């Protein structure tokens, strides 16, 4: 597996983890609350991420996609694709705004600063990043992923080693957790649908810049497997410490701080990096929808949309998440369905129908 495939995998993971991993609350509500069945849920989500990542990367490379619009037109046709494009573009911007608000909330909770300081800091960082070339953006977005994986592995090991509650107590506590769906499988599918809608635009642009379908497909699949592994480890860590996480808004940060103040600081930095990765991915894909990357128009578009996003972020993180995320989840379900239909149609075609772009 070549270097580009690994970078694509890390970038794919990096865009998604900011919206789906940062606080740990997402894992609690979509997985841990289902008790032992949550393990099956994490495996299902991981399989979906791997399959969808591979298929989206393959389609994007085949099309040499310049933005997610090209892929949507293939999946849905011209008219329906145009509607999906408008909806997804709108929600991309909304998630980017939510990440700016999340940065403000993190600075307030951890350092006692005004949320405005955190949001402005992240906005400036994002604009500077978007002024770089695409390869450097991919590199920067993928940097946070190895740090997060290492921290989650350390926290999971420590959590299992120091857990003081028995299984019966943990199962009882898990039943009291709020969950997003009546069944673990539906929770896993909903989690994948929201996050794939977040990761799809950036993945489409990155994979579209390569001509090697095999490498990009492998990168998409590897990123999905990595996401599944992270979900599994974090879910196990949270489950075995439910007795100490009651009422925690940022359970991952609480686990890290219990291990060591130094690890707590590292987790704070990691969360900031996750927010940064997702925000860059969202504003990059949004700007790429209207202008070609690495051009003056693209940089001007990036500056404009980030500035507007900064103003809108003052509405507050909780409010934005409550309004943007659920609707994006429904959009993600439609996208997943279209990818599966496209895959099934390709399976029915002769092997020579899809050529390898050398």
TrEMBL record:
Keywords: Membrane, Transmembrane, Transmembrane helix
Taxonomy of the source species: Bacteria, Pseudomonadati, Pseudomonadota, Betaproteobacteria, Burkholderiales
Alphabetized InterPro entries for the sequence: YkvI-like (IPR038728)
Protein name: Membrane protein YkvI
Transmembrane residue ranges: 34-54, 86-107, 113-133, 140-161, 181-207, 219-242, 262-286, 298-321, 327-344
Signal sequence range: none
